[in-house]
Design a protein that fits this description.
The protein is mostly helical. It folds into 3 domains: 175 residues, Growth Hormone, Chain: A (Up-down Bundle); 186 residues, Up-down Bundle (Growth Hormone, Chain: A); 50 residues, no CATH class. Helices cover 69% and strands 1% of the residues. The protein has a two-stranded antiparallel sheet with strand order 1-2. Strand 1 and strand 2 form a beta hairpin. Helix 9 packs antiparallel against helix 16. The N and C termini lie far apart (58 Å).
């Protein structure tokens, strides 16, 4: 468990090390705003298919082999950034980091959950998601502090990351090798949503998409906006970015107390406030941006945790892995696509104007998603039967009506069996009149 948590934190931190350094790369290589946003989005757009490609690799090849491959890919990404000579090296580094995190996310999470006691499975799942968020927060903070106060600002953060990856390699090598034949063949997983959970999945995916949209805008665009507004202290920029994820991780434990649906609604409210603040200021004011970062972090924690909790509640156990994988695809796309939208708008306007327009459009979708979350019913509330059959089952005069377990039985008692609705129940004695002069008998 400790090895899985360590690798999640280190690889996630490495993937977000470049965030406060984007202004330096833009000046060093004279790249446009569109290229800069594409550079950030490359990671998210590569991670989504990598998550599907390597989702079942740990079952077929073993967790140790997959984690080793992830460590090597992450090291390759850091080397590309440390010795970058042109924007092509930066793109290659982001692609390698996306492949690494896509491969390690499933394997490390399975390692954490598989070694947790049965009574602590839910705690282990929360621990894995918290490790993911803390790594995302640690990357920008560490890179900003090292780049501001240590020599070689575009090299020293990646040197530290390589040292941490070396320690991670030694921990992975100490894991036991998988014994016996693989549990199943390794093949890419296709997102599959069970029929009875599609509405709940749609609302959870939309909530998570908006949550990671706000985080993606902060990590991709806000550092450049603060730099152009005269706030050139990289340590301060890194702390502003880290505040989003630290507040998100702090809000995660409260999701269980509030419940999945109230947590999503509260999170969407926080996201709406932060998007309005960014749309009004364009990310140029440091105090307002810091306040928006704190509100966005709390909103992200509630929305992200509530969306994951909804899927945990409604997904069938035998298909939970495929549903969770599809949900994380929505998360990664939410982190990358809006950043690309900002870059495309900069072709005809400034970065500040593009950020205001994209955040305003995202904010307009928040009330729509909130209404959907509040109105979509729980899929378990509906019986998967034909409408005519369901009407007969609900009719109190029907002899086929299901009797609740708390309702006293009358007449003859039949053995429990599976009814047409797929649930166990007992039949009520028929209310047809008795035959004249005959003995009563059960229907």
């Amino acid at each position: 468990m400790r090895t899985g948590i360590y690798l999640l934190v280190v690889l996630t931190a490495g993937a977000y090390l470049p965030s406060p350094l984007y202004p330096g790369y833009q000046r060093a290589f004279e790249i446009s705003d569109l290229t800069m946003t594409l550079l950030y989005a490359t990671f998210a757009l590569v991670s989504a298919p990598a998550l599907l490609l390597f989702g079942s690799a740990s079952d077929a090849l073993g967790a140790r082999s997959v984690l080793r491959a992830g460590v090597v890919l992450s090291a390759a990404g850091s080397l590309c950034f440390a010795f970058a000579a042109n924007p092509g090296w930066l793109m290659a580094g982001r692609a390698a980091q996306g492949l690494a995190l896509g491969a390690v996310t499933t394997a490390a999470t399975a390692l954490i959950n598989g070694n947790a006691p049965d009574s602590s499975r839910h705690r282990a799942a929360v621990l894995a998601s918290t490790a993911f968020l803390l790594g995302t927060a640690a990357g920008p903070v560490a890179a900003g502090v090292l780049a501001q106060h240590v020599w070689a600002p575009l090299f020293s953060p990646y040197l530290l990351h390589l040292v941490l990856l070396g320690f991670g390699w030694s921990r992975v090598s100490a894991l036991p090798a998988s014994a016996g034949p693989p549990l199943r063949r390794w093949r890419p997983e296709r997102p599959h949503i069970p029929r009875g959970t599609r509405r709940s999945f749609a609302t959870a995916a939309a909530t998570g998409f908006l949550a990671w949209t706000v985080v993606g805008i902060f990590l991709a665009v806000v550092p450049v906006l603060l730099d152009r507004a005269g706030h050139a202290d990289l340590a301060v920029i890194g702390c502003v970015l880290g505040a989003v994820l630290v507040c998100s991780a702090s809000a995660q434990p409260l999701v269980l107390r509030f419940g999945a649906r109230p947590a999503q609604l509260a999170g969407l409210g926080g996201l709406f406030v932060s998007l309005v603040l960014l749309a009004l200021t364009g990310g140029g004011s440091l105090p307002i941006t810091l306040g928006a970062a704190v509100v966005a972090g709390v909103g992200h924690g509630f929305a992200y945790g509530g969306a994951a909790g909804t899927i945990e509640d409604v997904a069938p156990p035998e298909e939970r892995g495929a549903v969770v994988g599809a949900l994380y695809v929505a998360f990664y796309l939410g982190a990358g696509c809006p950043a690309i939208a900002v870059g495309l708008v900069t072709l005809g306007s400034s970065l500040e104007t593009a950020t205001s327009w994209v955040t305003a459009v995202a904010g307009a979708f928040v009330p729509v998603v909130a209404v959907a979350v509040a109105t979509v019913g729980h899929p378990r509330d509906a019986l998967p039967v034909a409408p005519a059959r369901a009407a007969r089952l609900r009719d109190p005069r029907s002899p086929l009506r299901l009797i609740r377990r708390s309702e006293p039985l009358r007449g003859n008692r039949f053995p429990e069996g599976r009814c047409a609705a797929g649930r166990a129940g007992r039949w009520r004695r028929s209310r047809r009149p008795r035959p004249a002069g005959g003995r009563s008998r059960p229907s």
